[in-house]
Amino acid sequence: MRRENRPALAAVAGIAGAGLLPLFCFLLLGDLAWSLKERSMPDLFKVQLREFSQDAVLLNVLFGALPSAIAMLVGPAVGAWSDRTRTRIGRRIPFLLACVPLVSASMVGLAFSEPLGDMLWHWSGAAPGMRVRYIVACMCVFWTMYELFTILANALFVALVNDTVPKQILGRFFGMFRIISLGVGVVFFWFVFGNELPALVRPVMLAIAAAYLLGFLVMCRGVREPSYPPPAPAPKAGLRLLAGDGAAPWSYVLLFFTLAIATICVLPVNINSYNAIEQFGVDRSDYGRAVAAAYSISIVLALPVGWLADRFHPLRVGYVLLGMYALCMLGAWGLVEGRLSFLVWLVVHAVLAGTFLTGTASLLPAVLPRARFSSLAALSASMTGLMTVFFTLGMGALLDANGRDFHVIFLVAGLLAALGTMCWHRLLVLHQRS
Hints:
CATH superfamily: MFS general substrate transporter like domains
Distance between the termini: 37 Å
CATH class: Mainly Alpha
Number of helices: 17
Order of helices and strands: HHHHHHHHHHHHHHHHH
Oligomer: single chain
CATH topology: Growth Hormone, Chain: A
Helix content: over 70%
Number of strands: 0
C-alpha cells in the first residue's frame, strides 16, 4: 500500500468503524453547500464592487472590520444561547434553520444590488453623479446582512460538527471537509473566474443562494444531535466563563490572542490580492487559475495534514506552518516584481494559509470543553474581531497613503505571522508543561 494513501484510508476506516457514515454524508452535504458559498461569494462580491469602487479603505472595512465587528458583538451572545438551548431537534439545528434562509436572501439581494440601487436613485431624484453611490450603498447593506448571518451560521455549523463527531478523528474529518471545500474552489476559479466574470455575477450568485439553502435544509433534516446534559449555570463575567472548567483563564486568553494574530496575518493578501492584479499585469483568468492551482495542491495535502494534527496535535502542526508562512511572505516582499512572481507567491500564500487552516481546524474542538464550546469559541472570535477591526482599517489607510503599492501586503503579512509564531511558541510550551 502506498504510504500517501494511508491517511485517507485511515479516515474512512475511522468513520465506518465508529458507525458514522450516515452522519458523515449529511455533514458532507452541508459542507458542500457551505463551500459553494465560502469559496465563491467573497470574490464574486469583489468583482461586483470593483466595477463601481476601488477604495482600499472600503474594501478592507467590508472584508475585515465589518465581519469582525459583527463576530465580536453578536457571536458570544448567540454562542452562549446555543450552548444552553435544549429542544427536540437539538441545540444547534434550530439556530441554523433560522440563519440559513437569511444568508440565501442576502445573496439574492447582492445579486440585484445594481438594479435596486438604480431604482432608489431614480426615486430620490438625485444628481447623475450620485448613481454609483446608491449602487455601492445597496451592495454594502446586503453584504452586511450576508456577513451577519454567515458568521452565525458558520459558527453553529462548526459547533454541530464538534457535538456530533468523535474528537479522535476530528482532524481527519476536517481534512476531508477541506478537500470538498478546496475542490469547489478549484472548479470555481478555473472554470468560472475569468475575464467575462462580471457578466456572470448575478446568475452565479442566485445559483449559489439556492444550492446553499437546499443543502443546509437537507443536512438539518438528516443530522440527529446527541442528548445533552442540563446546561450549567451561566457565568456572569468573561473571566469566570474562561475559568469555569478549572482551566487557567489566562491560558485561554493567550490561546485566543495567538489565534487572532494567526487569522489576521493572512488578511492583507487575502483581501487585497484581487485589487493588486492590475499593478502586476495579471488578468482575471491568470488570477483564477493561480488560485485553482493553489487549491489543487492543498487538496493533496489536506488529509495528510489532518492526520498529522490527530497524531501530533494541531498546536504543533500550526506552529510549524505559521513559521513557514512568515518566512515565505517576508521573502515575497522582496521578490515580487511582475506578473509571474506575483502569481507564484500568491500560490505559495494560498497553499500555506490553507494548509494552516486545515492543520488547526480541530484546535479549538481539541482544547475547549464541549459543554461550553460555542460560548468559548465565540469569545475567541470576539478577540479576533476586535483586533481585525483596527488592523483592517489601518491596512486600508496604509494602502491609500502609499499610493496603492501592493508590495506592502506581503511585508505586513510576514511581520504579523512572525509575531504570531512567537506567541504560538509560548502557547506550545504551556501545552507541553500541562
